[in-house]
Amino acid sequence: MSRRIAGMVAVVVVLLVGVTTAVAATVVDDDDRWNGRGGGMTSSQMMMFGGMHGMRAASEDVYLAEMVAHHEEAVAAAQQLRRSPRAEMREFGESIVASQSAQIDQMRQWLADWYPDRTEQVAYRPMMRDLTGLSGDRLDRAFLQDMIRHHMAAVMMSQQLLVRGGAEHDEVEALAEDIRDEQHAEIFQMQQWLRDWFGVGWQHGMHGGPWMMR
Protein backbone atom coordinates (compact mmCIF):
# COMPACT_ATOMS: atom_id res chain seq x y z
CA MET A 1 0.00 0.00 0.00
CA SER A 2 1.44 3.39 -0.95
CA ARG A 3 1.89 6.09 1.66
CA ARG A 4 -0.76 8.23 -0.02
CA ILE A 5 -3.34 5.46 0.06
CA ALA A 6 -2.34 4.44 3.57
CA GLY A 7 -2.80 7.99 4.74
CA MET A 8 -6.26 8.27 3.22
CA VAL A 9 -7.35 4.96 4.75
CA ALA A 10 -5.91 5.97 8.12
CA VAL A 11 -7.95 9.16 8.21
CA VAL A 12 -11.12 7.21 7.43
CA VAL A 13 -10.29 4.71 10.18
CA VAL A 14 -9.86 7.41 12.81
CA LEU A 15 -13.03 9.16 11.72
CA LEU A 16 -14.91 5.88 12.08
CA VAL A 17 -13.53 5.48 15.58
CA GLY A 18 -14.64 9.00 16.43
CA VAL A 19 -18.17 8.45 15.16
CA THR A 20 -18.52 5.10 16.89
CA THR A 21 -17.27 6.22 20.27
CA ALA A 22 -19.23 9.47 20.15
CA VAL A 23 -22.50 7.57 20.01
CA ALA A 24 -21.58 4.94 22.61
CA ALA A 25 -23.81 4.86 25.69
CA THR A 26 -22.65 6.79 28.76
CA VAL A 27 -24.71 5.37 31.62
CA VAL A 28 -23.74 6.87 35.01
CA ASP A 29 -23.90 5.10 38.38
CA ASP A 30 -22.62 5.91 41.87
CA ASP A 31 -20.13 3.06 42.01
CA ASP A 32 -17.89 4.37 39.24
CA ARG A 33 -18.32 8.13 39.27
CA TRP A 34 -15.01 9.90 39.46
CA ASN A 35 -14.94 13.22 41.28
CA GLY A 36 -18.72 13.05 41.53
CA ARG A 37 -19.28 13.38 37.80
CA GLY A 38 -20.14 11.13 34.91
CA GLY A 39 -20.00 11.95 31.25
CA GLY A 40 -17.76 11.41 28.31
CA MET A 41 -15.51 12.82 25.66
CA THR A 42 -16.79 14.55 22.55
CA SER A 43 -15.69 13.31 19.14
CA SER A 44 -13.55 16.44 18.71
CA GLN A 45 -11.78 15.80 22.00
CA MET A 46 -11.27 12.17 21.04
CA MET A 47 -9.65 13.18 17.75
CA MET A 48 -7.17 15.27 19.73
CA PHE A 49 -6.53 12.52 22.27
CA GLY A 50 -3.10 11.41 21.09
CA GLY A 51 -1.75 14.96 21.03
CA MET A 52 -2.97 15.60 24.57
CA HIS A 53 -0.44 13.10 25.81
CA GLY A 54 2.47 14.47 23.86
CA MET A 55 2.51 11.46 21.53
CA ARG A 56 3.36 13.00 18.19
CA ALA A 57 4.89 11.08 15.32
CA ALA A 58 7.20 13.89 14.29
CA SER A 59 9.72 11.42 12.86
CA GLU A 60 10.28 7.71 12.52
CA ASP A 61 12.64 7.41 15.49
CA VAL A 62 10.25 9.38 17.72
CA TYR A 63 7.37 7.15 16.64
CA LEU A 64 9.33 4.01 17.48
CA ALA A 65 10.52 5.24 20.87
CA GLU A 66 7.08 6.54 21.85
CA MET A 67 5.36 3.36 20.70
CA VAL A 68 7.75 1.18 22.69
CA ALA A 69 6.76 3.01 25.88
CA HIS A 70 3.10 2.93 24.89
CA HIS A 71 3.19 -0.81 24.20
CA GLU A 72 4.99 -1.51 27.47
CA GLU A 73 2.13 0.04 29.42
CA ALA A 74 -0.41 -2.00 27.45
CA VAL A 75 1.49 -5.24 28.07
CA ALA A 76 1.71 -4.57 31.82
CA ALA A 77 -2.04 -3.86 31.97
CA ALA A 78 -2.96 -6.88 29.83
CA GLN A 79 -0.99 -9.18 32.16
CA GLN A 80 -3.47 -8.28 34.90
CA LEU A 81 -6.21 -10.00 32.92
CA ARG A 82 -4.83 -13.36 34.01
CA ARG A 83 -7.07 -12.76 37.04
CA SER A 84 -10.19 -12.01 35.00
CA PRO A 85 -13.23 -14.22 35.61
CA ARG A 86 -14.03 -14.13 31.87
CA ALA A 87 -12.31 -16.49 29.44
CA GLU A 88 -12.70 -13.90 26.67
CA MET A 89 -10.74 -11.33 28.68
CA ARG A 90 -8.00 -13.76 29.68
CA GLU A 91 -7.56 -14.75 26.02
CA PHE A 92 -7.63 -11.10 24.94
CA GLY A 93 -4.95 -10.23 27.49
CA GLU A 94 -2.74 -13.05 26.27
CA SER A 95 -3.15 -11.85 22.68
CA ILE A 96 -2.12 -8.29 23.58
CA VAL A 97 0.89 -9.48 25.55
CA ALA A 98 2.06 -11.73 22.72
CA SER A 99 1.54 -9.33 19.80
CA GLN A 100 2.74 -6.15 21.46
CA SER A 101 5.75 -7.81 23.13
CA ALA A 102 6.87 -9.00 19.70
CA GLN A 103 6.39 -5.50 18.30
CA ILE A 104 8.38 -4.01 21.18
CA ASP A 105 11.29 -6.33 20.43
CA GLN A 106 11.15 -5.43 16.74
CA MET A 107 10.99 -1.67 17.36
CA ARG A 108 13.88 -1.81 19.82
CA GLN A 109 15.96 -3.66 17.24
CA TRP A 110 15.19 -1.04 14.60
CA LEU A 111 16.11 1.76 17.00
CA ALA A 112 19.41 0.04 17.74
CA ASP A 113 20.16 -0.64 14.06
CA TRP A 114 19.03 2.66 12.52
CA TYR A 115 19.32 5.18 15.36
CA PRO A 116 22.18 3.98 17.59
CA ASP A 117 22.79 7.46 18.97
CA ARG A 118 19.21 8.00 20.03
CA THR A 119 18.15 7.22 23.59
CA GLU A 120 15.07 5.05 23.88
CA GLN A 121 13.82 7.02 26.87
CA VAL A 122 10.84 9.31 26.30
CA ALA A 123 8.76 11.55 28.55
CA TYR A 124 5.83 9.14 28.54
CA ARG A 125 2.73 9.95 30.59
CA PRO A 126 0.81 6.89 31.85
CA MET A 127 -2.67 6.59 30.37
CA MET A 128 -4.11 3.73 32.40
CA ARG A 129 -5.17 3.18 35.98
CA ASP A 130 -3.32 0.84 38.33
CA LEU A 131 -5.27 -2.41 37.94
CA THR A 132 -3.44 -4.46 40.56
CA GLY A 133 -6.02 -3.79 43.27
CA LEU A 134 -9.04 -4.60 41.10
CA SER A 135 -10.73 -7.93 40.50
CA GLY A 136 -13.83 -9.42 38.90
CA ASP A 137 -16.14 -7.04 37.05
CA ARG A 138 -14.26 -3.98 38.28
CA LEU A 139 -11.02 -5.26 36.74
CA ASP A 140 -12.61 -6.08 33.40
CA ARG A 141 -14.56 -2.84 33.16
CA ALA A 142 -11.65 -0.58 34.11
CA PHE A 143 -9.35 -2.40 31.68
CA LEU A 144 -11.77 -2.07 28.78
CA GLN A 145 -12.46 1.62 29.35
CA ASP A 146 -8.80 2.49 29.77
CA MET A 147 -7.51 0.29 26.95
CA ILE A 148 -9.98 1.77 24.46
CA ARG A 149 -8.49 5.20 25.13
CA HIS A 150 -5.00 3.70 25.04
CA HIS A 151 -5.67 2.09 21.66
CA MET A 152 -7.10 5.34 20.29
CA ALA A 153 -3.81 7.09 21.00
CA ALA A 154 -1.87 4.38 19.14
CA VAL A 155 -4.26 4.49 16.17
CA MET A 156 -3.98 8.25 15.89
CA MET A 157 -0.22 8.29 16.31
CA SER A 158 0.18 5.63 13.63
CA GLN A 159 -2.12 7.40 11.17
CA GLN A 160 -0.24 10.63 11.82
CA LEU A 161 3.04 8.99 10.83
CA LEU A 162 1.46 7.57 7.69
CA VAL A 163 -0.35 10.74 6.64
CA ARG A 164 2.78 12.84 7.03
CA GLY A 165 4.98 10.31 5.28
CA GLY A 166 7.22 10.13 8.33
CA ALA A 167 8.20 6.48 7.91
CA GLU A 168 11.67 6.30 6.37
CA HIS A 169 11.66 2.51 6.11
CA ASP A 170 9.03 0.30 4.51
CA GLU A 171 9.13 -1.95 7.58
CA VAL A 172 8.03 0.90 9.85
CA GLU A 173 5.27 1.94 7.46
CA ALA A 174 3.99 -1.64 7.47
CA LEU A 175 4.15 -1.79 11.27
CA ALA A 176 2.23 1.47 11.62
CA GLU A 177 -0.46 0.10 9.32
CA ASP A 178 -0.64 -3.12 11.36
CA ILE A 179 -0.90 -1.27 14.68
CA ARG A 180 -3.57 1.04 13.29
CA ASP A 181 -5.69 -1.75 11.81
CA GLU A 182 -5.28 -4.29 14.64
CA GLN A 183 -6.03 -1.83 17.41
CA HIS A 184 -8.90 -0.27 15.48
CA ALA A 185 -10.55 -3.71 15.31
CA GLU A 186 -9.86 -4.31 18.99
CA ILE A 187 -11.50 -0.98 19.89
CA PHE A 188 -14.77 -2.17 18.35
CA GLN A 189 -14.52 -5.49 20.22
CA MET A 190 -13.89 -3.78 23.55
CA GLN A 191 -16.78 -1.37 22.98
CA GLN A 192 -19.07 -4.33 22.34
CA TRP A 193 -17.98 -6.06 25.54
CA LEU A 194 -18.59 -2.88 27.56
CA ARG A 195 -22.11 -2.62 26.16
CA ASP A 196 -22.89 -6.33 26.52
CA TRP A 197 -21.50 -6.87 30.00
CA PHE A 198 -21.87 -3.49 31.70
CA GLY A 199 -24.29 -1.44 29.62
CA VAL A 200 -21.88 1.49 29.36
CA GLY A 201 -19.70 3.20 26.79
CA TRP A 202 -15.96 3.76 27.02
CA GLN A 203 -16.39 7.40 28.12
CA HIS A 204 -18.21 6.53 31.35
CA GLY A 205 -16.27 7.51 34.46
CA MET A 206 -13.27 9.00 32.67
CA HIS A 207 -13.24 12.37 34.49
CA GLY A 208 -10.37 12.75 36.90
CA GLY A 209 -8.30 9.89 35.58
CA PRO A 210 -4.49 10.16 35.63
CA TRP A 211 -4.39 10.42 31.83
CA MET A 212 -6.50 13.56 31.63
CA MET A 213 -4.97 16.98 31.15
CA ARG A 214 -4.97 19.09 34.29
From TrEMBL:
Entry keyword annotation includes Signal: yes
The organism's place on the tree of life at top rank: Bacteria
Limits of the DUF305 domain: 63-194
Keyword Signal part of the UniProt annotation: yes
Signal peptide (UniProt feature, chain positions): 1-24
One protein family per Pfam: DUF305
Entry keywords, A to Z: Signal
PANTHER family linked to this entry: SLL0788 PROTEIN
Protein name: DUF305 domain-containing protein
Organism field: Nocardioides caricicola
